[in-house]
Design brief:
The chain is built from 7 helices and 7 strands; from the N terminus they run H-E-E-H-H-H-H-H-E-E-H-E-E-E. It has 241 residues and is α/β, with parallel strands linked by helices.
């Protein structure tokens, strides 16, 4: 289920990834799920109902959007013109609508990466498709226990035990989409600490040697050219032992 175009998001693989997560931390044994890089909620929506779900992201606009939808307060636009698109692109004020436009109406889901309608050759508009997709999952989003704007490090609580934690951080050596200057080494050290008392699974292309790959799958990038599709191998990693 495509919720919203989002560069680096897991909307296409969300269900498959959720099945791997549940296999390693069965709902009967683990009741709480944390996703510190929730993005477009591609995995999150498949975890609601089996766990008490808590999500966060460093992108303030995105969190404002999910909070507004959870509260039933988001007013969907009828359409997004090119003029409106660039109005929000040039705005410096975070808002739920800015997230909707910046991700949901941009080429390839890249944050204000270009007005998507300029590349659209389908009968429906990108705006209407994004609205339709989000509305289908409104009832699921409203069941998320907590949605907050914060850095993933804020979850580093000593009392964090017996949680299932899924991380989809900015991938190393790839286009950044929400966190500039992300420290990958620091991230993996925090994952090591979390892994002492929790099940922590990470999406990436590569990982340090003390992590093992438990799942992999080829996927086409949302960003495509006229001549070829960019193909990547998505992987899930967990701490050894």
């Amino acid at each position: 289920m495509l919720i919203m175009r989002y560069l680096g998001g897991k909307t296409q693989l969300g269900r498959e990834i959720s099945e791997v997560l549940k296999k390693h931390a069965p709902p009967g044994k683990y009741s709480k799920f944390i996703e510190p890089f929730c993005g477009s909620l591609g995995v999150t929506v498949h975890m609601v109902g089996d766990y008490n779900v808590y999500v966060s992201d460093y992108h303030k606009d995105l969190i404002l959007l999910w909070k507004a939808i959870k509260a039933g307060a988001f007013k969907y636009p009828r359409s997004i013109s090119k003029k409106t698109y660039y109005k929000y692109k040039n705005s410096e004020t975070p808002s739920a609508m800015r997230a909707f436009v910046g991700f949901g109406c941009s080429f390839g889901g890249k944050w204000f990466g270009g007005y998507a309608e300029d590349y659209n050759n389908k009968k429906y508009t990108i705006c209407s498709e994004t609205i339709r997709s989000i509305k289908k999952l409104e009832h699921v989003i409203k069941k998320i226990k907590n949605i907050k704007h914060c850095n993933y490090e804020k979850w580093s609580n000593p009392e964090l035990k017996r949680y299932l934690i899924y991380c989809d951080p900015p991938y190393k050596n790839t286009t950044g989409y929400s966190i500039r200057g992300f420290d990958n080494d620091k991230f993996w050290n925090i994952v090591r600490k979390w892994s002492k008392h929790n099940i922590v699974i990470v999406s990436e292309y590569t990982a340090p040697k003390d992590f093992k790959c438990i799942w992999r799958k080829k996927r086409n990038s949302l960003i495509q050219t006229k001549n070829y599709n960019i193909q990547k191998i998505e992987k899930l990693f967990i701490k050894r032992n």
